[in-house]
Design brief:
There is one protein chain. Helices cover about 25% and strands about 30% of the residues. The protein has 4 helices and 9 strands. The strands form 2 sheets. It has a 6-stranded mixed beta sheet with strand order 4-3-2-5-6-7, sandwiched between helices. Strands 1-9-8 form a 3-stranded antiparallel beta sheet. α1 crosses α2. The two termini are about 20 Å apart. The relative contact order is 0.20. The structure holds guanosine-5'-monophosphate (5GP) and magnesium ion. The site of magnesium ion (MG) has 4 residues, from β5.
Length: about 190
Amino acid sequence: MEILISEERIRDRIHALGKQIEADYLGRPLTIVAILTGSLIVLADLIREVGIPHRVALLQASSYKGATTTAGALIINESFAPDVAGRDVLLLDDILDTGHTLATLVHRMSDRGALRVRTAVLLRKLGRQEVGIEPDYCGFVIPDRFVVGYGLDHNDDYRHLPYVAVLPTPEDPGASEETGQFPVMG
Ligand code: 5GP
Ligand code: MG
């Protein structure tokens, strides 16, 4: 598999994002709400870089089955949903693709009484967005390829990889040759 973003680049970027979040939320009632399961690894690494008091909570959402590029219906499991009333929520997801997941959850958090809701993503995929949402914090901008590793899966495989790699798929057979043409920003 072609490594798109190395372990070292991820570490440096997460450190920088953590320090930015720390400065932005100093003195604010921050709750980082991570969207399972893909944001598991970025959550664990990011919160250890945010050196101010904050709470951590989890939500589960899924819209994808396998490496298909067609998103399924968005399923949100709010059974562990946190009490965010009066708090600044920072929603954290692994990747912004069409934008439906984050946009929907921003509304849910506001409905639950959050003071302010912002968003953070490890990755933002170019050319697929359907909903006008701008993440407040973004690790890397990537080309339209199906990626795995650092929490991102294909049928729950590959989450443990310490880097982000392109998964060759039948719909995207030229992935490995083509990604070299795109700079990965961030
Ligand atoms: P959105 O609602 O923005 O379309 O979808 C976001 C979700 O789709 C992510 O949380 C992630 O679970 C899944 N997703 C989108 N693109 C990819 C990808 O390239 N790789 C993996 N593993 N999941 C993806
Ligand atoms: Mg996800």
